[in-house]
Amino acid sequence: MPSILSISGVSKTYATGFTALKEVNLDIQRGEIFALLGPNGAGKTTLISIVCGIVNRSSGTVTVDGHDINKEYRAARGLIGLVPQELTIDAFESVWATVNYSRGLFGKPANHAFVEKVLRDLSLWDKKDAKAITLSGGMKRRLMIAKALSHQPRILFLDEPTAGVDVELRQDMWEMVRKLREDGVTIILTTHYIEEAEAMADRVGVITRGEIILVEDKAELMRKLGRKRLVLELRSPLTAIPEALSRYALELSPDGGQLTYTYDNQAERPGVASLIRDLEAGGIQFRDIDTQNSSLEEIFVNLVRKDA
Amino acid sequence: MNPLAAMNFRAVWAIYRMEMARAFRTVLQSIVSPVVSTSLYFVVFGSAIGSRITEIDGISYGAFIVPGLIMLSLLTQSISNASFAIYFPKFVGSIYELLSAPVSYLEIVIAYVGGAATKSIILGLIILATASMFVPLTIQHPFWMVAFLVLTAVTFSLFGFIIGIWAKSFEQLQLVPLLIITPLTFLGGSFYSINMLPEVWRTVTLFNPVVYLISGFRWSFYGKSDVSVGVSLGMTVVFLLICIAIVGWIFRTGYRLRN
Known about the structure:
The structure holds 2 protein chains of 2 kinds. By secondary structure, chain A is an alpha/beta fold. In chain A, 33% of the residues lie in helices and 29% in strands. In chain A, the strands form 3 sheets. In chain A, strands 6-7-8-3-9-10 form a 6-stranded mixed beta sheet, sandwiched between helices. In chain A, helix 3 (95-105) packs parallel to helix 5 (137-149). In chain B, strands 1-2 form a two-stranded antiparallel sheet. The chains are: A alpha/beta, B mainly alpha. At the A-B interface, helix 2 and helix 3 of A face helix 2, helix 4 and helix 5 of B.
């Protein structure tokens, strides 16, 4: 399937001389949820801003559904909805006016029924006559989403959508994102909350210091780069790891009651069976056993550290 | 393709309507305050000085200053409306929406400058109506009066738009209107005929572009002017073209917008 967004060789150097992006290549598949992860200052927002037309790139090309973002900017931008990181709304406009304004700005005819649906879906209908300045932080965030959805975009950029949002609202937003995907909207989100990417994304991209260092299917990434932990609850605490077990990557808890073995689940011989045999041979008994997969967060931290 | 057919008129209308709604929301600041201050000028200058100077070029002093007063408000309000309209979204960050929308530079300028010019034209007409309550007014060339009104409002709204994009702070936003435009207007023959000045100062004054605006505008009322109407019109159009060229450059380079 052809990608809906194609970024090719995009670089950005600001007037200050700071290079925010270096030869970035990225293809986003139609209908997927793509999570772009990266530490602060990695270039996530710059990349989004270039695609959306807010920042001029220094070099490279970007096409949205086959439309060049410069030569066919109307067609390209009309397909995109953007929810920026900062809560930037004209504070003195009413919710109703500002969402209808956004729709008009994107060249769509007035459609009060649709705008009403968007506001109802985002639980903002009761506040339609309220000025933006009177809304809570969470409501403002939803209002930004309503504005971005007002022209029925096919690609939605969510730049840190749940920053400063409470847990309940975060769950609601995840639900909304899933619904949008069901309607065929492609979602690209940047987030600091890796659990967000873990819960929602189909694919994950990692950007650091202006370079995309990895793009991978999330499940595949977790399978390939994930590590497993085997946690053994010991019957009798140990004071130290016995010499006979030194060849294993073991960690002993401070109270000596728990042994943790970290291993690569892709390895041909992960060593679990031999560890159990060696424990028995050494007379170390355990009363419980548990295995844990490493989270996307751990994978991300490892990747970024490795690159630094 | 016909360029007109490709234009995003809905966006132009959306921005224009938003700008007009802002003016009505802040009606005290937008309309009432300039009317009150102009009336004060009128009372102070018209009554106090008018009692000493009865006529200039055969026109009663009170009536003589009306075109200058309208121009004073038209210039300052056009600049302030347009500069604030584009600076405010930059300041709060909501400019992202404008930059990411399928809107051409021309459409952005038409909408913002159109909104700012409309507001200052309405204001100019309100001041004209207010002035007519103080002094009897005649408008000998109504077509040219409207033409000067519209041309000046559009030109200085464009100028304000440039200032709004250039400004990095509210202080810079106020700098040009306060330190350049207001003095130029006061020294541009709003309250006197430049023919009343000594020869040297008269020559110096001719370098003030506002002289031509006021002179042409006053001609449309009373058929009398300090400089020829053709020159007035020509100077206004030249300034308009300069502003258009600067705006064109700003958009071509993304100056202080997309960098």
